[in-house]
Amino acid sequence: MTRFWHHFITNGGEDAAPPSPVAPNPADTEPLDAFSRAVVAVAEKLRPAVVNLRVGRGPRAGSGSGVLFAPDGFLLTNHHVVQGSEKVRVRLNDGSELPGRVVGNDPWTDLAVVQVEGNGFPFAELGDSGKLKVGQLAVAIGSPLGFESTVTAGVISALGRTLRSVSGHLVDNVIQTDAALNPGSSGGPLVDTHGRVVGINTAVIQPAQGICFAVPVNTAKTILPQLLKHGRVIRGYLGLHARQVPVAPDLRARFGLAQPTGVEILMLEEDGPAQTAGLWIEDVIVGFGGEPVTSVDDLQRLLTRHPVGLPAPVAVLREGRRVERTAVPAEYPSPVRG
Questions:
Q1: Do the bridges between strand 170-177 and strand 125-126 make them parallel or antiparallel, or are there none, so unpaired?
Q2: Where are the alpha helices (DSSP H) in 122-246?
Q3: C-beta of residue 187 within 8 angstroms of C-beta of residue 76
Q4: Which residues are within 8 A (CB) of 266 and not within 5 positions of it... i.e. 6 or more apart?
Q5: Residue 4's pLDDT band (boundaries 50, 70, 90)?
């Protein structure tokens, strides 16, 4: 029993004399201080670039978050935040509200680009989600339930997840984090300790706690040029779902592969281009169109660049052998919703 509780019980609840001050142990406070400094620095740097988006009015009104990535008002958000809208209202960190227009959206990645009227806006730096490590610190900023500029912190819990988005489409290569998200956080940035955007927050698994997801920023950077130019993404489509996996050292040595990873096929769509080409579930794709494939991001980027309808060689590792097949990417089917 501590001296405080002994005094409290024996003296009928009278206030105890304050304990003599004890000098804090630097080893006890230093980790917390370092953590706090990192989160505070990120929040101060990023909050001016994070906005609240409002869509519709009355009973059909909705809201979400977004992050400015250019001084002339371009911002990233989720497709499902602005779905079905051409105009949005954008509330900045200083409380001012400006009109915005939806420049382009992509239901397949649940990403969209909005432009706010004006210029000279504070903006965030887009980082490299390909360098993320499981366990590293992650900070999420958004407007959950209308509480603007809310900051939460956690870690990168896992990489390479596949998620069915709010709009109903499977999104590959998603980041899992335990940085708390709630309705309204969608479209806000997931940020590393240098204040660089590494993901766009997109979903939370309810009623689970600490299972939240973000679309990698490298996916956003791959499709941004098309969203800005065409308002949509014209991409090649193989009809498969996949994840990044390591390539065994003996296979790398046998086939002269410099890359440490490839992309394992988890699912093939019936009569899709990949199945028609003779690809199998559990094949590990290591090349497409004569270029190495080390991640889902690589494959998506190559499919976005490769002309639809033009045959392309696909190199895979299958049961200890290197196999090459020819696939003809189709254009992604039109979304059923959104």
A1: unpaired
A2: 217-230
A3: yes
A4: 162, 240, 241, 242, 243, 281
A5: very low
Q: The pTM is what?
A: 0.69
Closest CA relative to residue 190, chosen from 142, 123, 134, 122 = 142
Residue with tokens 């499919």: 303
Q: Contact at 8 Å (CB) between 177 and 185?
A: no
**182 compared with 74, residue with greater pLDDT:** 74
Structural domains of the chain ordered from first start:
28-233 (2.40.10.120), 236-331 (2.30.42.10)
Residues marked as catalytic: 80, 110, 186
In what helix (H) or strand (E) does residue 100 lie, and over which residues does it extend? strand 97-106
**Closest of 50, 95, 58 to residue 77, by C-alpha:** 50
What's the mean pLDDT in 66-72?
A: 95
Q: How far is it, in rounded angstroms, from Cα 102 to Cα 125?
A: 21
Structure confidence by residue, pLDDT tens digits, 71-91: 999 999 999 899 888 999 999
